[in-house]
């Protein structure tokens, strides 16, 4: 079939809207009509050329929501008409990783997903015979996409696509990092670095679990008001702090953060996030994705004296199990998504979404089809 997609032809080039050929789903795969897709910092990261796994040409996008249109042989967990959220972290429930219950990093289709192809090693997308890569196993910047059955979460029928698409990455990543990865407890003092689409979800989850101080750190003062609405109790602009940021935050939290979260992708900030943690028990969670080849560093004594450095991918969430529950939380008014979706535009305007992100003027832009 012919589909409409925003195609990334190369690093640093704007996306172009193209008619793309999409092959039908093979065994174990599903065809999904994408109704809406968020534009995440990670799409921009790949488009910039900084992503070591970035492949071109590709159809980017990993934060979508849509409807199953057709299923391939052997598919049993979804049927045409079901509403779904694509999962860049699948959940096969059979691999060693899934069965361990120690991680959400299902490895069932990892190798092919990283090569931009479906599990059989081929792409379903092409233009005039030229293969176009899938991206993160999802490629949601197209009005139809093909996904492995294990990479879709079935969600309730009344969930609005242009809101719950954000649960496909940003919401789940931020909320899951607090609940699944850090397991923040009531009364904890939390420091969040970066008040963008991920950091604000960390803040709303920290409030939800009953954190005490929720300190937000951002160089953009325009992020303050929304962060306060989501639960931030103290705002720190590093550019306005006299002297070093780390001792300032340790003083502010009266000994250091019980939990800190890096939601930027800056290796220098990752160090600050670890070192502002409380001696003896503070836990720092890296969420941000740093550029190719970059490394983190600290003095080992920071860890010897009890601080813990962790990372979190997709908020530690098991997609098929956890994503439908997060959709329920949204529908029940337990979490706020609406105020984070600052811009909605047709797919034809997708490059504007990247411009707004780079200018720091959006939290989330959502493209619709
Ligand atoms: P964003 O651009 O919306 O937000 C980043 C925020 O950081 C902005 O508010 C910006 O002003 C602030 N910032 C930049 N430099 C700063 C500095 N030096 N000190 C303080 N604040 C600074 O990005 P986002 O969509 O929230 O994504 C954040 C990061 O999370 C990205 O690296 C993204 O790739 C990553 N990410 C990770 C996962 C995961 O599963 N681990 C999932 C999605 C996104
Ligand atoms: O299993 O080795 C693996 C890789 C899993 C990829 C997890 C990606 C999470 C971070 C990327 C940001 C996503 C938007
Ligand atoms: Zn698995």
TrEMBL record:
GO biological process, alphabetically ordered: formaldehyde catabolic process
Domain Enoyl reductase (ER), residue spans: 10-367
Reaction catalysis annotation: S-(hydroxymethyl)glutathione + NADP(+) = S-formylglutathione + NADPH + H(+); a primary alcohol + NAD(+) = an aldehyde + NADH + H(+); S-nitrosoglutathione + NADH + H(+) = S-(hydroxysulfenamide)glutathione + NAD(+); S-(hydroxymethyl)glutathione + NAD(+) = S-formylglutathione + NADH + H(+)
Required cofactor names: Zn(2+)
Keyword Oxidoreductase part of the UniProt annotation: yes
Enzyme class: oxidoreductase
EC number from the UniProt entry: 1.1.1.284
Gene3D superfamilies: Medium-chain alcohol dehydrogenases, catalytic domain, NAD(P)-binding Rossmann-like Domain
Entry's Gene Ontology molecular function annotations: alcohol dehydrogenase (NAD+) activity; S-(hydroxymethyl)glutathione dehydrogenase [NAD(P)+] activity; zinc ion binding
Domain of life: Bacteria
Signal sequence range: none
Function of the protein: Has high formaldehyde dehydrogenase activity in the presence of glutathione and catalyzes the oxidation of normal alcohols in a reaction that is not GSH-dependent. In addition, hemithiolacetals other than those formed from GSH, including omega-thiol fatty acids, also are substrates. Also acts as a S-nitroso-glutathione reductase by catalyzing the NADH-dependent reduction of S-nitrosoglutathione.
Family (UniProt): Belongs to the zinc-containing alcohol dehydrogenase family. Class-III subfamily.
Cited NCBIfam families: adh_III_F_hyde
Protein name in UniProt: S-(hydroxymethyl)glutathione dehydrogenase
Source organism: Dendronalium phyllosphericum CENA369
């Amino acid at each position: 079939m012919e589909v409409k997609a925003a195609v990334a032809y190369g690093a640093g080039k704007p996306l172009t809207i193209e008619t793309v050929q999409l092959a039908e789903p093979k065994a174990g795969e599903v065809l999904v009509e994408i109704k809406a897709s968020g534009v995440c910092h990670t799409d921009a990261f790949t488009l910039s050329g900084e992503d070591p796994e970035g492949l071109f040409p590709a159809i980017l996008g990993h934060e979508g929501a849509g409807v199953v249109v057709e299923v391939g042989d052997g598919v049993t967990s979804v049927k045409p008409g079901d509403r779904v959220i694509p999962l860049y972290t699948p959940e096969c429930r059979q691999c060693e990783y899934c069965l361990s219950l120690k991680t959400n990093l299902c490895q069932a289709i990892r190798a092919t997903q990283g090569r931009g192809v479906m599990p059989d090693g081929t792409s379903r997308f092409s233009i005039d015979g030229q293969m176009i890569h899938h991206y993160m196993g999802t490629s949601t910047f197209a009005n139809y996409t093909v996904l492995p059955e294990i990479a879709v979460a079935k969600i309730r029928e009344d969930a609005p696509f242009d809101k719950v698409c954000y649960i496909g990455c940003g919401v789940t990543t931020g909320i899951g990092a607090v609940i699944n990865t850090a397991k923040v407890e009531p009364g904890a003092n939390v420091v969040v670095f970066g008040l963008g689409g991920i950091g604000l979800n960390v803040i709303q989850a920290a409030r939800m679990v009953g954190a005490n101080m929720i300190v937000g750190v951002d160089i953009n003062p325009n992020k303050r008001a929304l962060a306060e609405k989501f639960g931030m109790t103290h705002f720190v602009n590093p550019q306005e702090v006299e002297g070093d940021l780390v001792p300032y935050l340790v003083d502010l939290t009266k000994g250091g953060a019980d939990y800190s979260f890096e939601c930027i992708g800056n290796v220098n900030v990752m160090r600050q996030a670890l070192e502002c943690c409380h001696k003896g028990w503070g836990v720092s969670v890296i969420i941000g994705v740093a550029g190719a080849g970059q490394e983190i560093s600290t003095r080992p004594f920071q860890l010897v004296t009890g601080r813990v450095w962790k990372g979190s991918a997709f908020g530690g969430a098991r997609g098929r199990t956890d994503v439908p529950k997060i959709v329920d939380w949204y529908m029940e008014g337990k979490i706020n998504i609406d105020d984070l979706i600052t811009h909605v535009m047709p797919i034809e305007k997708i490059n504007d979404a990247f411009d707004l992100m780079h200018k720091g003027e959006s939290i989330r832009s959502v493209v619709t089809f």
